[in-house]
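Hi team, as promised in this morning's meeting, here are the two structures we talked about. I've kept the exact order from the run log so nobody has to guess. The first one is mostly here for context; it's the second one we should focus on when we meet again. Sequence first, then the predicted structure tokens.
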Amino acid sequence: MSDDAQGGSVRTDVEELLQELTERDDDVVQLTIDLIAARSPNPPGDETAPANVIIDTCRALGLPQPVVVAADVTRPNRMLTLEGMAGPHLAFCGHTDTKPAGDAISEWRTDPYVRTTIGDRLYGLGSTGHEGRWPRCSMQRSGCSVTRISGQESQFLVQRGRRIWQRLWRPLPCQGGGTGRHRRNHPGRTFGHPRRLDAIRIVSRGASLLEVVVRGTQMHSSLSDSLGAINAVEAMARLMVCFRDELELRYPEHPLCPTGPTINIGVRTVGGVGYGVVPGQATFYSDIRTLPGMDQETFREDIQAAIDRCSPVLNGATATVVWPEGMSWSAATEVAPDHPAVVASRRAARAVLGHEAPIAAFTGGTDAIAFQGLAGIPILAALGPGLLPLAHGPNEWVSLISLRQAMRIYVLTAIEYCRLV
């Protein structure tokens, strides 16, 4: 058969497949609805309900029973593997948890756990999150896998399930890097976990979470003027403002992250006892999203240097930086633009959307931190429906059209990937 004839046959097969997928449009929407209804707010973190939805769905489709890898029975990670002939292996990965409705529950115009469809929009808690989306990681050998992770349990899944990963997949090469440079950081806008179908996001930014404990003198409030008390909360307030102004981070310039790291000072504050007591201790928490090529030791030096420069505003109080275990440093990851999974995704997106999807960065942290950072498995950070401004707030919604488009893109990505590797 000639190349032209073979190419025509391939195109015909893909067209027929896309036509068949039309019959699954309602199924994709229904699965999203079922996952939204299966409550899994984190905290506290209990994903058994959506995990059961996934098991029931697999059973209804005649698929194998998913493997469970879990540190806690209430936080099950489900892994479904479809073995094929010798060749490439592709995995799709997503979370089963949501953020709580929280203080914004009264601002919901609909029940966050009940299906509400208005036009093209499907409303519900987590709809713009992983309930309707799948990030993608590429691996090599035969078959395809689907993984649903409980919360941020990907690190446990990689560590405890290492034998499973090694049996199925051999890492492909990936790309990171950049050269170091010193400059003041400026905050920039982000497109985090909720991502759009208009870009292939090959960078997963890292994260560093830190605490600063400020100590003063606790005493009876009526004696603060005569005994010269040091109010820890007041000192913390001055320090937070100074710290934000003085913080200079050294980081490599990256073409996909032109605004550099994202800095959020004081994402949480704790301090004070109540009326009648001068607060003797206060703590503020900060969240910084890092770039590929940033160094942990250099980063910590920059944090401490900024705190030291702010010491005059403490007026006698002391400040100590605390690095919480397991949360203080997660390195950013990156996969090469010419990686087969990237090329395959771009081809698939073009076929479904009708235009080229550009290469971009996923400015939040993802499971790539564990899969690529710990296990060396290259992962595409993001491609799917959902918009960041809607995430973690009231009245989340996802486009029904984008859900259906995502299904087609994922199927075509698997086909294109198998052709490339």
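And here is the second protein, the one for discussion:
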Amino acid sequence: TLLELYEKLKPKLGDQEARELLEFIEGSVERRAATKADLQRTETALREEITRVEQELRGEISRVEQELRGEISRVEQELRVEIQRVKADLLKWSFVFWVGSVAVLSSLILALFNAYLGR
């Protein structure tokens, strides 16, 4: 403790010098030590900073979510258009296939009919 330190320094430095040295050390320690009020101010400042950062993060998350929803809607619309295009192509080629098939079968039947009658 300070009293023990004072008793050890007093014979070597003298009464007045030992007292002044300990007062200087004690004052220096008090100036550097955080008080309860300092800690409360720091805690309040940290809480405010955490709240601010949390609000910024929520805003950023909300913005990114909106962007993602927009991008998903855009891609969905593009897919719908592409599906409609593919359906139209399939119908067109299906029609061409069936018309061709009917023409070939009709020609074949006509050729067989002509061959049968020509006999």
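Starting points for discussion:
The chain has a mean pLDDT of 89.
DSSP finds three helices and no strands in the chain.
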